[in-house]
Amino acid sequence: MEQATMMVPLVKLGTQGFEVSKLGFGCMGLTGSYNSPLDDAAAAAAVVAHAFSRGVTFFDSADVYGAQGANEILLGKALKQLPREQVQVATKFGVRQDAGGVTVCGRPEYVRACCEASLRRLGLDYIDLYYQHRVDTTVPIEDTIGELKKLVEEGKVKHIGLSEASPDTIRRAHAVHPITAVEMEWSLWSRDIEREIVPLCRELGIGIVPYSPIGRGFFGGRGVTQQVSDGCSLQKHPRFAAENLEKNKQIYLKMERLAEKHQCSPAQLALAWVLHQGDDVVPIPGTTKIKNLDANVDSLKVKLTDEDLKEIGSQIREEDVAGGRQYNSYAHTAWKYADTPK
């Protein structure tokens, strides 16, 4: 059966010797965000186990996903059934959501407290890749990375990452301790990192981990062929707001035509486009459904030439997208505003 033969290959992420599966798994949705959460730990464990059986070994969580660290707890339980040395666990610290909205903290004592708490929830002795989730613009990045460096020296963290960091912040962080990976939104409709961030990462030997590579499900038809359900966080996302969504549907229809040509689904073509951006690029789509997980893995079968990539990029243009890339509550934390004091 062909299904079983497509296994996700391993690649080096960055130049620090960190090996991961070429396709990772974003765990955020397991505890609800775009969909309702999976109803029990066994259901989430089944999805994680299935991903591993297809060769996905790189799992991405964060302390802010789910109430009171629920996502890390769920992932920790799911990992109990897998061989620890064959999986790579990424998690993140730095974002706090409370009644006052979204705040970001990068103070050294907070970094340490978050790491200890994540290790407890995950039930692990070390975190393979520990990211600063968003950059605290009140704390010099050297102070935050200095504490992460100590955690590496103590063996609690293997590799350090940044998410939504500005070029200056990436460069300064990397001077304190090598940064292994930068996690950024990158997809056919979110391409703002291509001019500055991608070349910088390649210059410094930093891997790139695209989140939302299928456009938060848009290229899978969310909002077009399937409703955005009540209670789904996308109700508040600018690109899924009624008047913007109406314009964005045209993009999806173009994607459908391109996908027909490549004999795959629009979601698979969107993911294949990201996978083809380089050997140092490891996207982390998430899903709660096994069939979508299989479809994501099978997007590795979609082979695109440079001509194909050019055609897709010229038809699906970022400038045609209506609405901002981030939720309004998070807009101030985007990489363009992520410089820190000297």
Task: Explain the overall architecture.
InterPro entries: AKR, Aldo-Keto_reductase, NAD(P)_OxRdtase_dom_sf, NADP_OxRdtase_dom. One of its GO terms (cellular component) is cytoplasm. This is NADP-dependent oxidoreductase domain-containing protein. Pfam families: Aldo_ket_red (PF00248). One of its GO terms (molecular function) is oxidoreductase activity. The protein is an alpha/beta fold. It has one domain (9-337): TIM Barrel (Alpha-Beta Barrel). 36% of the residues lie in helices and 15% in strands. It is built from eleven helices and eleven strands. The chain has helices spanning 2-5, 41-53, 70-79, 108-122, 141-153, 167-176, 197-204, 242-261, 266-275, 290-298, 306-315, and strands at 10-13, 18-21, 25-26, 58-60, 88-93, 95-98, 101-104, 127-132, 157-163, 179-185, 207-211. The strands form three sheets. A seven-stranded parallel β-sheet has the order 3-4-5-8-9-10-11, with helices on one face. Strands 1-2 form a two-stranded antiparallel ribbon. Helix 7 links the parallel strand 10 (179-185) and strand 11. The longest helix is centred in the C-terminal third of the chain and has 20 residues, at 242-261. The mean pLDDT is 94.
Task: Estimate the strand proportion.
Answer: 15-25%
SSE pattern, N- to C-terminal: HEEEHEHEEEHEHEHEHEHHHH
Q: How many H/I helices? A: 11
CATH architecture: Alpha-Beta Barrel
Distance between the termini: 57 Å
Low-confidence stretches: none
Largest sheet: number of strands, sense, barrel closure: 7 strands, parallel
CATH class: Alpha Beta
Strand order of the largest sheet: 3-4-5-8-9-10-11
CATH topology: TIM Barrel
The SS-based structural class is alpha/beta
GO molecular function: oxidoreductase activity
Protein name: NADP-dependent oxidoreductase domain-containing protein
Pfam families: Aldo_ket_red
Keywords: NADP, Oxidoreductase
